[in-house]
Amino acid sequence: MKALIVEDDADLRRQLKQMLEQKGYTVEETESGREASYLGEEYEYDVAVVDIGLPEVSGLDVIRHWREAGISLPVLILTARGDWQDKVEGLEAGADDYLAKPFHSEELMARLNALVRRASGHASPVLKFGPLELDTSARVVTLNDAEVRLTSYEYRTLEYLMLNAGKTISKAELTEHLYHQDYDRDSNVLEVFVRRLRQKIDPEQTLQPIKTVRGLGYRFALEASA
């Protein structure tokens, strides 16, 4: 998952970035509301964390700008504790959720993960597709109730494909949303990840959950379970 952090407090911004990266997110950050407005328009993110009290261009104005531009990026705003007016204004501006400072890292991650799931049409933290299940909270994958051991990159790849089940995801989109900027984004490396992933989640080659769409990318093809 790819996140945008908009926070002018350098220490908090660094803490947020480290926290999200430890949970498997790729992160871009800025202290500027003006730059945030531009980034949200020009690049795709899975979720954004926006502080309301930004200099020059406020977090509220950033969110309003995105919504007026038709950008449906899920947004979690950070507010001062007890300042209910900021919370109301943020939600009316188009934010999806809010969190008061100071906050617990576990709550922040739970709220961000929930926003990402809801944006993909999933209410439960467990994604179920036939015998294959992925718990986005525990970051555990099971096949026929047996845990499947995946590397961090394999898990990220599978999670993104399952959250976007039925859609054709290009290799460029996968690398942009899953891998850090300093990571080798050679498409051959991605093909290796996908091949290993297929072997682990479909050892008998009966499900064929990840389809290759020739010339376009990959598609998770299983139907979601009720």
Question: Briefly, what is this?
Answer:
Keywords: DNA-binding, Phosphoprotein, Transcription, Transcription regulation, Two-component regulatory system. InterPro entries: CheY-like_superfamily, OmpR/PhoB-type_DNA-bd, Sig_transdc_resp-reg_receiver, WalR-like, WH-like_DNA-bd_sf. The protein is of the alpha/beta class and 226 residues long.
Features:
226 residues, alpha/beta, Rossmann fold, Arc Repressor Mutant, subunit A, five-stranded parallel beta sheet
Describe this structure in words.
It is built from eight helices and twelve strands. By secondary structure, it is an alpha/beta fold. The longest helix is centred in the middle third of the chain and has 15 residues, at 105-119. The strands form three sheets. A five-stranded parallel beta sheet has the order 2-1-3-4-5, with helices on both faces. It has a four-stranded antiparallel beta sheet with strand order 6-7-8-9, with helices on one face. The protein has a three-stranded antiparallel beta sheet with strand order 10-12-11. Helix 6 packs across helix 8 (187-201). Strand 7 (132-135) and strand 8 (140-143) form a beta hairpin. Helices cover 41% and strands 23% of the residues. Residues 2-116 form the Response regulatory domain.
